[in-house]
């Protein structure tokens, strides 16, 4: 099957964008966790602002590149199912995923959403139990990712569907390797040690 050059470019751009986003937040937060690098150089507030500014830019670019990929490869997904059924399922996934993600983000607030507890650990008060967190342990990275699969189905994009799987795996890897150990450290009483080093669950 012939793949137009712009589709390959869109795929490469999105994969690079996802890797830039996940690797940056993973490496930056990991280093902050171990050494308090940004806090020591810029202070707690200054370090957090610098991290949030670049992290938000990479996050928005990642989302935009995924939309671009799906649009550039529109109609490349062949399915034996009726198009109407695929469109309905995709739309439902988008609605559910976006609703849960926005609900979770509103529940957390801007600070925890951008991992502020890595910079100001004294503000961490334990895992969130409000909003969707009453029903799901990790709504942001689980149900909150359904819209990526849904949008790929709505646009009928097989590269978009493959990218949704890759994106989901990448963010879950970040959670397992960086975020989860951070909160497990807090849960086991590591907050005092972290505060002394100068170095919070989404």
Could you name the key traits of this structure?
202 residues; mainly alpha; 7 helices; globular
Q: Please give the radius of gyration in angstroms.
A: 19 Å
Q: How much strand content do the residues show?
A: under 5%
Distance between the termini: 42 Å
Uncertain segments? 191-202
Number of helices: 7
SSE class:
mainly alpha
Helix content: over 70%
Mean pLDDT: 90
Q: What is the molecular shape?
A: globular
Order of helices and strands: HHHHHHH
The number of E-state strands comes to 0
**Count of folded domains:** 1
Largest sheet: none
SSE arrangement:
Layout: H1 5-35, H2 37-72, H3 83-108, H4 110-113, H5 146-155, H6 158-187, H7 191-197
What does this structure look like?
With 202 residues, the protein is mostly helical. It has one domain. Helices cover 71% and strands 0% of the residues. The chain is built from seven helices and no strands. The chain is globular and about 55 Å long. The termini are far apart.
Brief summary:
The chain is an all-alpha fold and 202 residues long. It has helices spanning 5-35, 37-72, 83-108, 110-113, 146-155, 158-187, 191-197.
